[in-house]
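Annotated sample (chain length 110).
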Amino acid sequence: MIGKKIVETNPITISEVKDMLEKFSETHELTYEQNLTLDHVDKFSKMDVESSTKLVEELLEIVKKKYAVRITDIMPEDLADLRLIFAKERVPIKKEDLEKILEIVNKYRE
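Output written by the structure step:
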């Protein structure tokens, strides 16, 4: 792919992907890969776009955006699940912050 490069990346939640693909499918026919992606996000999205956006915004006060998006997509239920998200992080996250994150996530659980 000569001449193409990634200029910027912006992580988005599964709910946002689902919303984008559904809107796109109203005006265009989806490709095979897009249909597979839509099927996947239908199965694994756990909340609507508005709730996921609000949750990410609240989590941004504690963690970086990429982690806020991961937490929103996974919706961890306990500290062990939450620690797995930060397993590759070189700087350890404080237990108080992890507990605060779980409190925020539990507010959005359906």
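Annotation: The chain has a mean pLDDT of 91.
Annotation: The radius of gyration is 16 Å.
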